[in-house]
Specification:
Layout (H helix, E strand, L loop, with lengths): L9 E3 L15 H22 L8 E6 L15 E4 L6 E9 L5 E18 L14 E7 L18 E2 L14 E2 L9 E8 L2 E9 L8 E6 L5 E8 L2 E5 L6
Parallel strand pairs: 9-13
Antiparallel strand pairs: 1-3, 2-5, 3-4, 4-5, 5-6, 7-8, 9-10, 10-11, 11-12, 12-13
């Protein structure tokens, strides 16, 4: 994920959590508020990071530790950070109160995202060049798909299979030879989306990239390197998750 997120730091927990100036006013209401806000934090990050993600196809489960009830009131908004930039699967969230003295609370969350992914209609041999008639789409949880996946037929049509595949098998970046959309050294457009706005800047690709994969890109203006998703020929996208009071 991009440097913009600074260790994936996102949303500030707001008023509902601090009702009456206390995080743990007794209880169930505070626990529900914290759970709701962390669920919203993870959900919003997934919606921002993954094309096709909506609140309807995301599931988030937050497990609060028993130590929550022993925490002292926090007089200012705690911050929430995630331990990694991937918001699907198991996530460790760090909630911090910046009072003096303050406190920190580790929270475990799990999340899933169902998206329609490309699969084979029937068994096909190695080196077969895919056509639209070879592909179907089924809704799958992509949280565990470490080998990649495709949600757009145009991204795989015309690509060759690198091995024999069975029908109903998910097409991944390892079993399909997808031509690179970006070559190392190419000048690319970096898009940053957030809050309904799109900001673009010029950059240089640090490696080859195929559709739907992340590559390192150097911002030509700042000379800093970010991780970005390949979305089109010569175009990469950096998801931006803003901090809110």
């Amino acid at each position: 994920m991009p440097e913009l997120m600074s260790r994936c730091q996102i949303f500030l927990l707001t008023g509902a959590l601090l009702s009456g100036g206390s995080l743990v006013d007794a209880s169930t209401n505070a626990e529900d508020a914290l759970r709701d806000l962390l669920t919203e934090t993870v959900t919003t990050a997934i919606v921002t990071q993954y094309n096709g993600a909506t609140r309807e196809n995301i599931n988030v489960d937050v497990t609060l530790p028993s130590t929550l009830q022993s925490l002292s009131p926090c007089t200012q908004d705690p911050t929430v950070e995630a331990s990694r930039d991937r918001w699907l699967g198991t996530i460790r969230l760090s909630v911090r109160c910046h009072d003096s003295p303050g406190w920190a609370l580790n929270v475990r969350a799990t999340s899933s995202l169902d998206l329609p992914v490309a699969m084979l209609r029937r068994s096909l041999p190695r080196n077969h060049v895919l056509t639209e008639n070879d592909i179907t789409f089924q809704s799958k949880d992509i949280a565990g798909m470490r080998q990649g996946f495709f949600t757009d037929a145009d991204a795989v049509v015309g690509s060759a299979l690198v091995r024999n595949l069975n029908g109903n098998q998910v097409l991944t970046h390892r079993n399909v030879e997808v031509p690179a959309m970006i070559q190392r050294g190419d000048q690319v457009t970096i898009l940053i989306r957030g809050g309904g706005l799109v900001v673009s800047m010029e950059g240089t690709a640090m490696s080859d990239g195929v559709h739907g994969r992340q590559i390192s890109v150097r911002n030509n203006s700042s000379d800093r390197t970010v991780r970005a998703w390949v979305v089109d020929r010569g175009v990469v996208e950096v998801p931006f998750v803003s901090r809110h009071q």
